[in-house]
Description:
Largest sheet: 7 strands, mixed
Distance between the termini: 56 Å
Structural class: alpha/beta
Shape: globular
Amino acid sequence: MEYDFIIVGAGSAGCVLANRLSECGKYSVLLLEAGKKDNALTIQMPAACLTNLTSTRHNWAFQGEPEPQLGGRVMQHDRGKVLGGSSSINGMVFIRGHALDYDGWAQSGCEGWSYRNVLPYFRKMESYEGGSDEYRALDGPMKVHRPQAENPLAQAFVKAGKQAGHPASQDLSGYQQEGFGVLDRSIHKGQRWSTARAYLDPAKSRPNLNVISGVHVQKVMVEEGRAAGVEYLANGSSQTARARREVILSAGAVGSPHLLMLSGIGSADHLNEMGIDLVADLPGVGENLNDHPDFVLKFRALKPVSIWPETKLVGRIKAGVQWLLTHQGTFASNHFDVAACLRSDPSVAYPDLQFTLSPIAVDDQTWEPLPEHAFQIHVGLMRAHSRGRITLKSTDPTAPPSILVNYYDDPRDRELMLKGIRIVRNLVRQSAFEELCGEEIFPGDSSQSDEDLNQLLTTNTASQWHLSGTARMGRATDQMAVTDANGCVHGVKALRVVDASIMPLVTNGNTNAPTIMIAEKLSDSILGKAPLPEIDAPVWSG
């Protein structure tokens, strides 16, 4: 078992790498994945995405540590455990983040990651249904659908934004992210378009690519300061595979730091406590954990404009048959047609809040639809000040690590979420919603004070499942940096990390599209190719 490249994790990044590294036929590639290939309808059908999150069939469903600022609540952190990783179970929201996110990465010491550097890779990866320009492209593997946003609630949302004095955006991933606009999705012809479909399916028949699923990698073997291969469990027995060129970790913001620590790469103090021999003292491994906290406001609809009837038995049967026959209708959508990226304050350089509308309201605990015509609006904090960490609880590779996000550890995050709640309440008071929006079901009119709302933030904040930053890029002189700007782990040769864990800061929006871009960009680095030519496109600044 010897290959040029060994990739650990067939998720959003790993599938991209497997395709690009095997493309020329020159190198042999091994792709290892703990989950299994699965063509279940819940993966293919966009509207079934919540079903994937209530089962452990395709979901690691990591249980976090009690969150100190959330009253000790234990949060579930959903991560894909299937070919395609989280791109196979996520909400299919496709948004790139703001240009200043990437300029900030470059300024923090990650040379080559400014917006003009990454834009060519965003274009390379996508085939955009909305047309091409200097920001978007038509011939990439990722099929990106632009919805029509015909639901009256979606139309009212965008119109109300204008009435409230906010800008409109023609493309949230193009020239102007800030404002209200249509929210793209990774769906093609009514089916989820994961990286397994976009990248792995076209490559899996190549003789130089070997995909092994249902195996659990235990550690990276490091010999004389160089990653020589991996040990993994297959059918209960330990196996090894050796890498002639590189081992690449693409196990995600939880899995990659977990595996680094199990391999002796991390904080010397922590590894000593766990009885693991030190290979490289990198105290940043597992630190800098970013996430987007989420809070949902629910409203009664005054007209039958929600999709609630389609969730009842007869409606489900009709919609299910329609989707099976035509891949159209209610089940062909994730039902996030519109969003808004806004600043919490005019003094903020660029948007730090994201709002998404859903034409149905669901119970926060069970995710069952409320039995009435209702809708909800999500408030997401895109640049939280709080940071968490991932550490080992056990040296057993099959045991999950400790995950503490530390939501609201920095009190500024609560203040920003309160501003977001007020923005939503002002939005639904605009005339565009006058004939559609009734009573505020949650939090409710009785919850107006900061004290009341802060208590609800404690009891009802959720995760947007955008964990990142736990093996961040940075210069070798940066004590907390884990990799350099090419994903190479400091102090260990032939070992890279390529996934959301290397983000220095989480992006201003859902993280799937940026993760795919990272893998596209670093594929060129791994192969020794020159980066794609920069694109110096203008960006709206308001």
